[in-house]
Amino acid sequence: MMLQLYSSTVNSRLLLGTARYPSPAVLTEAVRASGAEVVTVALRRESAGERAGQGFWSIIRELGVRVLPNTAGCHSVKEAVTTAHMAREVFGTSWIKLEVIGEDDTLQPDVFGLTEAARILCAEGFEVFPYTTEDLVVAERLLAAGCRVLMPWGAPIGSGRGLNNLFGLSALRAHFADVPLIIDAGLGVPSHAARALELGFDAVLVNTAVAQARDPAQMAAAFAQAVEAGWSARRAGPIEPRDFAAPSTPAIGTAFRG
Amino acid sequence: MRILLNGVWRETEAAELSAALRQFGYGDAVVATALNGEFVATATRARTPLADGDRVEVLAPMQGG
Fold it and tell me: Which of A40, A54, A185 sits opposite B64 (nearest CB)?
């Protein structure tokens, strides 16, 4: 079953970040191995001498994947909105992964600025993917602002800690059953991704866990398998955990009893 | 006059943004621009005048998470 993201559909439930790879060649290998159809990209100051951005952009275009530009590094509504305008022109997409950072140690979203920026950008026709927390009230405000996809964090960006708040994330999933929810940030190993899909999240976005692995392409493939497994398991209907044992072998007809 | 281009003060006599971009070597590059914090679309750069002390951002695609 395909994943609906605004007016588009994608097959792969693994989205991949493009930062922190050891080389452009390794990035290319990892994107291919991941099967990701969506990769995140950013905007940075371009040096006229080096023109690093021009080279990066041709690599991404050759991969033939859809790009989801971010507003990483923005700390205010104004910066995020201007960056979104610039990204829409350069990347030719109305998609924007909206980040308004509120705290530098945890890179925790400034949810007040986030909802305000989301309101402005949705009204201008952007298809906003807000990087948010698992807070239900914030999620409600983002949806009221016009967002049709949410990207709650698993754990602080780059921390590799997995799903920090299982209770909160499960509550978010249950509360917004029909909203595409993509776990963004903090995943460290493929089992974290499988867990997210098993809990009912629609997709995951991974960057550092792949880019900084010893073998990024192999890790990308491992994440793809985990996402597939988690998604299959979710559709298959996992059993509920119990506090006590329940014999899997039928008890009836057991020898030596009675 | 002086403009703050990507955080560095530069001397220019360019009357408008597109001329400044050509002067500083961005002529054919895929970039997005902002003037004093406001986005300036490619199509309007030629009619966007520059003034002394203006802050110009020239951004390009880059790796991101």
Answer: A40
